[in-house]
Amino acid sequence: MVELTRHHLRVLTIAPELTGAADLIARLPSLGVLPSLGHSDASFETVEGLPRPAPLSVTHLFNGMSGVSHKSPGLAQWALLDREVYTELNCDGAHVHDAAVRLALRLRPGDRVVVISDAVAPAGLPSDRPPGSLYGAPLTAKGAGLYYRDSGVLVGSRFLVMDELARLIGHFGLPVAEAVAMATTSPARLLGYEAKGALRPGFDADIALFEPDFSSCRMLAWQGGILHDTGL
Q1: d(CA 67, CA 100)
Q2: In the chain, what are the domain boundaries?
Q3: What is the percentage of the chain residues whose pLDDT exceeds 70?
Q4: Nearest to 114 by CA among 64, 200, 74, 56
Q5: Residue 232 confidence (pLDDT) above 80
Q6: pTM of the full structure
Q7: Are 34 and 8 in contact (CB under 8 A)?
Q8: Is the CB of residue 170 less than 8 Å from the CB of residue 176?
Q9: What are phi and psi of 25, to 5 degrees?
């Protein structure tokens, strides 16, 4: 896989209970690939026994994984309790119940939470616009979630990261700086970009300017070059 992607493969999600998963997790950093745990039914004990390369990530916390239990804890419970692992978190209100989001925000160190959107093609379109289809299958929208119309399976979100930030600040009450860091500094550190993710001397001039309610992006610059500007 690394050869086929011409060494552009950066992150690989692994179910840790699979045969050979521990060896693969230990090997991936030497190939320049970040191991991430997810899509898994692993027990708490299985995850506890894994190698611990740093950094280590958990893919979209709570979704598609063994959960929280007082008798049979799984990957999600391990991720909530570990202080060093990075945890992706979808706060759109469709993928993860608000109570679980509050639990994660209360238990996890803020600099180890990475806000994600799980956006698919119709994301960012006006809410009154039909969502269309994905891979030829018609979609239906419910809140921020997009579902296959025939099966009702959740396939993604119509929220972008800025919508997630609006919800973290407006609905969950996080300070702006703390919420924004979860979408900028935390993922930059996770992926090894030491000069990105913050407005600091010597950092790349990657700047996004939003409306106060994060309803739209007014200006976007990457390494000092303007990519988008609505006029200020």
Answers
A1: 11
A2: 120-158
A3: 100
A4: 56
A5: no
A6: 0.93
A7: no
A8: no
A9: -60, -40
Local confidence band at 127 (pLDDT 50, 70, 90 cut-offs): confident
CA separation for the pair 36, 13 (Å, rounded): 5
Q: Which string of DSSP letters, residue by residue, matches the chain?
A: -TTTTTT---EEEE-TTSTTHHHHHHHGGGGT-EEEE-SB--BHHHHHTS---SS-EESSTTTTB----SSS-BHHHHHHH-SSSEEEEE-SSSSS-HHHHHHHHHHS-GGGEEEE--B-TTTTS-TTS---EETTEEEEEETTEEEETTT--EEEES--HHHHHHHHHHTT---HHHHHHHHTHHHHHHTT-TT-SS--TTS---EEEE-TTSSSEEEEEETTEEEEE---
What span, in angstroms and rounded, lies between the C-alpha atoms of 117 and 88?
10
What is the average pLDDT across 153-169? 96
Residues contacting residue 119 through CB under 8 Å, at least 6 positions apart: 156, 157, 158, 159, 160, 161
Residue 178 is predicted with a pLDDT of 97
Tokens 């179910």 identify what position?
15
Q: Which pLDDT does position 35 carry in this prediction? A: 98
User: What are the C-alpha distances in Å from 61 to residues 3, 135, 160, 189, 195?
Assistant: 29, 25, 17, 18, 26
Cα torsion 16, 185, 84, 87 to 10°: value is -40
| Side chain identity, residue 155 | V
